[in-house]
Design brief:
With 210 residues, this protein is an alpha/beta fold. 35% of the residues lie in helices and 16% in strands.
Length: 210
């Protein structure tokens, strides 16, 4: 049974653009048949706690005895098992203050574990698809005053792609605030087109990735 792991982290509820994007992927995935399963984790509604101890950065069996509370170890096991069991990962990545929400970072801190999910000889997720569906109120174009200011997607590309070895595709919708902020009004058409294109691309990926 092919399994999709869907992560959402937006605090915007029904107004969330990234949730629209991950919805498009999930709907296309489910349309492929009843055997296409979805495990959904809403990191805003049900946040993962920040690390109780830095010992969680190490794989079970390599930690000092008694250094990790049993409840924390069990939660980490659950999150890693969910990720390892997924054939495809789709992540909603809103950009808050130039970075990913702290709720998403807390999840990353639980699943990026040397000797377990990453390492010179340990990369069980290598080659598996990870789709980053990202949205931001402005853009970070090359040559613009904000070039290089966005750190959400680059950090996730390093963790999921470089470290865990996953095949990462980024689908972005920028200028999502162009309809609300007068100063961004000239970019409204671009924002609408990027959202349309992103929804179409995510539907295509949801219908084809394995």
């Amino acid at each position: 049974m092919p399994t999709l792991l869907r992560l959402d982290s937006s605090a915007s509820g029904d107004a969330s653009v990234t949730r629209r994007l991950t919805d498009a992927f999930e709907q296309a995935w489910r349309a492929r048949g009843a055997s296409y399963d979805v495990v959904a984790r809403d990191l805003h509604a049900d946040p993962v706690p920040h690390l109780e101890t830095s010992a969680l950065h190490w794989a079970p069996g390599t930690r000092p005895e008694g250094s990790v509370p049993a409840e924390a170890a069990a939660l980490q096991q659950t999150l890693v098992d969910e990720l390892l069991a997924a054939d495809v990962l789709v992540v909603g990545v809103p950009v808050y203050n130039y970075a990913a929400p702290s709720t998403l970072k807390a999840w990353i801190d639980r699943v990026h574990v040397p000797g377990w999910t990453t390492g010179p000889t340990t990369r069980p997720l290598a080659g598996r698809p990870a789709v980053l569906a990202t949205a931001s109120g402005i853009a970070y174009d090359e040559g613009s005053p904000t070039e290089g200011h966005e750190h959400a997607v680059p950090a996730l590309e390093v963790v999921l792609g470089t470290a865990l070895g996953m095949w990462v595709e980024v689908v972005a919708a920028r200028y999502t605030l162009a309809a609300e902020v007068p100063e961004l009004a000239p970019m409204r058409h671009r924002g609408e087109q990027e959202l349309t294109d992103a929804l179409a691309r995510l539907a295509d990926l949801g219908a084809t990735l394995t």
